[in-house]
Amino acid sequence: MKIANYICHSVSMYALALLSFGCLKHEKDIPEPEISVISEETTGVAPTIVSNIQETYYPMDYAEGQERFDWETLEYLPSPPGSDLIPMPWSDKVNRQFSDDIRYDYKKADGWELYQSTFTTKFLLAHKSFSLYNKYRGVLRYYYYIGIGTGTEKFRDYKILQNCVASSEGSPLLNFTSQYIIDIDQNATYSYSFEPQAFNDPAWYAVEYELAFDKSIYSKDASFQMGVFFTMTKKNSLTINGKGLNELNAKVRVFGVDKSFENLTSVDACYIVYGDRDFNEIASTNINYLNRLDDKHILSGVLSKPAAMHVKWSAKLDLQLPSNGIGLTNESFYVSGSNLSSIQGKAPFYEKALGVFYLDKKPLYAKSESTEKGHPYVYTLDVSSVEYLFNPSVLEIAEIQNLKQELVATEQEALMKDNNLANLYAGQILKSSKPLHVQGVRVSFDVVPKNGGGKVHMIKTFRAGLKS
């Protein structure tokens, strides 16, 4: 696997020092400055939809014993005769450590496809995992199973699942997972997350990764891969949004960490929310904007129905972990859509390119001054500079509707203010009484399946460039 070892070296070593996010000081004695912002829409200008993407199909080669199975109807995973039966992750017969929000979200009608699996009736493998991919949402979900006899009592204080996902360089595949506001000029090759999934045996674990469409995937070969790495750890100290917590009670992803994963300071973080239960779990962190689940307040999200979502919220975090942990697993697999003709077996079961969309280049906006009384600062989105790349395999099965693109700005540079999300101002034209900091261009649209299935609403925010 040509994923540089240094990307997740610390995950294999499981040595973590300190994650530190400075909290903003709240000067209660200073009144909030008043600001007036007028939002307007442009007329007669449309975004660009790149239409010359040529999908290429490559036949897959499967290894001996590699086995498709109907996860939706089976009660147990495929296993050799005489071996212990392992119930499906959503079964009442097994322990689950992942969020209940995604327990029953695995139906084919909702877009889920089998991506890869180590379960087979031919062999008994020590590593037990499978993954599902949602073709309407661009989300890959990885399930991992720990069997009996791994020492639960000894590690009962290990309640944090530390995860790293990595990919080969030269692709935006992980940018939606690894960045809160996406920078077209920076391709992420790894992402770290921490989830409240306690060590138990036997038990199922699950994590999700939202993937971006890579228009060059068809020219890549088997050297382009993804990897997942897991360890179980415990916390020494924990503060989220200025409040000390006894336990990690929410999924947190950190961005921009040093590859050595040591002595980390001033890195960004966000909550990952799968549904209503996740919202309830993090209510104790006193975030007052979590009930505002709409386009106006979301910068990154995939919403298919109230109980099926993949939403990120900016957060401030201080988390100190011990230097040792329990190494659980690491696994690499090929990326579908690339040319895998050179491999012998172990191809993914899903054969199409991953991800729903991406932008072809960084969108642009203009900054100008106005003589209009009370609103001298004007910020205008160049709508035509928003160039969409839609996955051809998605366009075959769904329609893209309700495209929307707008500037998102704040009064200060930081997204977090007083440990809460700063006031967001959105529109294609923003006229302000005070200077604004443009966070980026937020795009949103609906993916409407042609088979009559429920629509998926996608929201993403991209860094914008200033027109010269």
Please give a structural write-up:
The chain is mainly β and 468 residues long. The chain has 2 domains: 5-23 and 56-334, no CATH class; 37-51 and 357-466, no CATH class. It is 4% helix and 37% strand. It contains 4 helices and 31 strands. It has helices spanning 9-13, 175-178, 276-281, 392-395, and strands at 18-20, 37-40, 48-49, 112-117, 129-134, 139-146, 160-167, 190-195, 203-210, 225-233, 237-240, 243-244, 251-255, 264-265, 268-273, 300-305, 308-315, 317-320, 326-334, 357-359, 364-369, 377-382, 387-390, 398-410, 416-417, 420-421, 425-427, 429-432, 437-449, 456-462, 465-466. The strands form 6 sheets. The protein has a 12-stranded antiparallel β-sheet with strand order 19-10-7-8-13-15-17-16-30-29-24-27. A hairpin with a 2-residue loop joins strand 16 and strand 17 (308-315). Residues 1-30 and 262-266 have low confidence and may be disordered.
Q: What about the largest sheet?
A: 12 strands, antiparallel
Q: In what order do the strands lie side by side in the largest sheet?
A: 19-10-7-8-13-15-17-16-30-29-24-27
Radius of gyration of CA atoms, rounded to a whole number: 23 Å
Determine the N-to-C terminus distance: 42 Å
Mean pLDDT across every amino acid position: 85
**Tell me, what's the shape?**
globular
Please report which band the strand proportion falls in: under 5%, 5-15%, 15-25%, 25-35%, 35-45% or over 45%: 35-45%
Number of strands: 31
**How many structural units, i.e. domains?**
2
The low-pLDDT segments are 1-30, 262-266
> What is the percent of helical residues?
under 10%
Number of helices: 4
Structural class: mainly beta
